[in-house]
Amino acid sequence: MNYDDQAKLENKLLRLAFMVLFAVIYRLLDVVLLLLVIAQYLFHLLTDKDNETLRQLGDGISCYYYQIFQYLTYNTEEKPFPFSDWPTTSEEMVKELGRTKSE
Description:
By secondary structure, the chain is an all-alpha fold. It is 77% helix and 0% strand. The protein has helices at residues 3-47, 52-72, 90-102. α1 packs antiparallel against α2. InterPro entries: DUF4389 (IPR025498). This is Lipase. Pfam families: DUF4389. The chain crosses the membrane at residues 16-43. Keywords: Membrane, Transmembrane, Transmembrane helix.
């Protein structure tokens, strides 16, 4: 095995390690999201309105899910948070996607 083949294999194994890491993070976020949904429902039940902070947290988590899925499905090579910035809001993400697709 020459140097280039060795480097390619190392890159593939490193990508696999990151994919496993982000798959685990995704599963942990499932629990966080479930707790957030329950808390938001209870807040709404008691006050007849939603909690802005919980809504923003849910928006951030859903955008983070998107980043993770993009990485896991090879649609991007950019590693999600904490290896890049925390995702922007869904509104900003939609604007960014619109700009990217039209360019």
